[in-house]
Amino acid sequence: MTDRPIPQLPRPEAMTTQEYAYLRLRDAIMVGVLRPGTALTFRGLAQQMDLSPTPIREAIRRLSSENAIEVLGNRRLRIPDMSAGRLEDLVELRVMLERHAILRAMPYLSEIAIDDLRRLDDNMDHAIAARDLDALTRLNHRFHRDLYCLPPHHGAMALIESVWLQLGPFQRRVVEQIETIIEVDHHKAILKALADRDPVALCAALESDIRDGILHLGRQILGQDD
């Protein structure tokens, strides 16, 4: 099991226990509380989350179908390991899907939307200064999600979040070395390109944000693991 507790999340009154279990486990994976290779058990998760086994089983079933948890047999579970090939594949998927989503968002931009994104980016700066890596990860996801969801129809978002989920456990290892990947603030470049309504600069800034945010240092980390 994980050395860190699975974070609590606000639970609306109408939310079912099954949905709540899924959202908590999904959040723990996406922010990297559960690391690559972490062994899990149904009983251990139920005890840690103070829930009965039934909603845990349903959450595991859903997360397994999203390639976020491996079901190994004999009731053994594991967070998938990362490999160089898998990392390259997931990063290329991010670039392709998010480039599509960000270009779709451009016609729906407003100054209010850009100001909201700036505030999120400012909050990310504060999280970096405080080294609050959980908050930083959630804010980063919100920055991108709010941008990609500007169009009334945003079918790529579910696919993008699936990729984030698969990258989350390994992404945390990269984020823990945040000092080495913040020489250039690519969100500032994204915001400038949005303000200028410049699609070429926007795609370039987005791709740099994704590749510099996980790929380059991720390759080094995986090389050190070998």
What does this structure look like?
With 226 residues, the protein is mainly α. The protein folds into two domains: 62 residues, Arc Repressor Mutant, subunit A; 142 residues, GntR ligand-binding domain-like (Four Helix Bundle (Hemerythrin (Met), subunit A)), CATH 1.20.120.530. The protein has nine helices and three strands, in the order αβααββαααααα. A three-stranded antiparallel sheet has the order 1-3-2. Strand 2 and strand 3 form a beta hairpin. Helix 4 packs antiparallel against helix 9, helix 5 runs antiparallel to helix 6 and helix 8 packs antiparallel against helix 9. The longest helix has 27 residues. The model has no long low-confidence stretch (mean pLDDT 93).
Brief overview:
The chain has nine helices and three strands, in the order αβααββαααααα.
What helical percentage do the residues reach?
Answer: 55-70%
What is the domain tally?
Answer: 2
CATH homologous superfamily title of the largest domain: GntR ligand-binding domain-like
Given helix and strand content, the structural type is mainly alpha
Strand proportion, as a percent range, falls in: under 5%
Count of DSSP H/I helices:
9
Number of strands: 3
CATH hierarchy class name of the largest domain: Mainly Alpha
Q: Could you list the spans in which at least 5 consecutive residues all have pLDDT below 50?
A: none
Largest sheet: 3 strands, antiparallel
Quote the distance from N terminus to C terminus.
Answer: 23 Å
Average pLDDT for all residues: 93
Main β-sheet, spatial strand arrangement: 1-3-2
Form type: globular
| Series of secondary-structure elements, N-terminal to C-terminal | HEHHEEHHHHHH
Radius of gyration: 18 Å
